[in-house]
Amino acid sequence: MGKAKIFPSDREWSKYIRTRDMWTCQRCSKQYDPPTSALHCSHFWSRGNWSVRFDEDNTEALCYGCHSYLGGNPVEFHKYYLEKLGQERFDALEQRKNNKKSGSRTYYLSKEFRATIKEKMKELGDW
């Protein structure tokens, strides 16, 4: 399976997550000055899973190095994410991932959803 296509909603979500995480890698704590492509919006469950593609528990800011390392070491990534979320939140995220009926692709690609992301950005205030 190839990489999932990047849509305008993905770009907005990525900016939101990196801003939410204060432009800091959540694994190694290296901070970046925005904008930068060195800090990624990482997905634990891949973007191909529409039910969690835009789920705040499924996404976090990771630097290129940490993202590459965890992506290449799935056992480490699982352990890291389980520790980060705790068992209860991790299990709930996995249940949401497995619920193929949640997460309407049409809605997530809409201007309405992008407006929702922009509202979330406003709630974060100036960063």
Written account of the structure:
This protein has 127 residues and is mainly α. The protein has one domain. It is built from six helices and two strands, in the order αββααααα. Strands 1-2 form a two-stranded antiparallel sheet. α1 runs parallel beside α6 and α3 crosses α4. The radius of gyration is 14 Å and the shape is globular. The N and C termini lie far apart (37 Å).
Give the N-terminus to C-terminus distance in angstroms. 37 Å
Summed up, the helix count is: 6
Structural category is mainly alpha
Task: Specify the oligomeric state.
Answer: single chain
Low-confidence blocks of residues:
none
What does the largest sheet look like? 2 strands, antiparallel
Strand tally: 2
Task: State the order of secondary-structure elements, H for helix, E for strand.
Answer: HEEHHHHH
Summed up, the domain count is 1
- Strands in their spatial order, largest beta sheet: 1-2
Mean pLDDT over the full residue set: 93
The outline comes out as globular
Radius of gyration: 14 Å
The percentage helix is 40-55%
Percentage of β-strand residues: 5-15%
What topology does this entry show?
Blueprint: H1 8-20, E1 39-43, E2 59-63, H2 64-72, H3 74-85, H4 87-98, H5 105-108, H6 111-124
Antiparallel strand pairs: 1-2
Helix pairs in contact: 1-6, 3-4
Key structural traits:
127 residues; mainly alpha; two-stranded antiparallel ribbon; 6 helices; 50% helix; globular
In short:
The chain has 127 residues and is mainly alpha-helical.
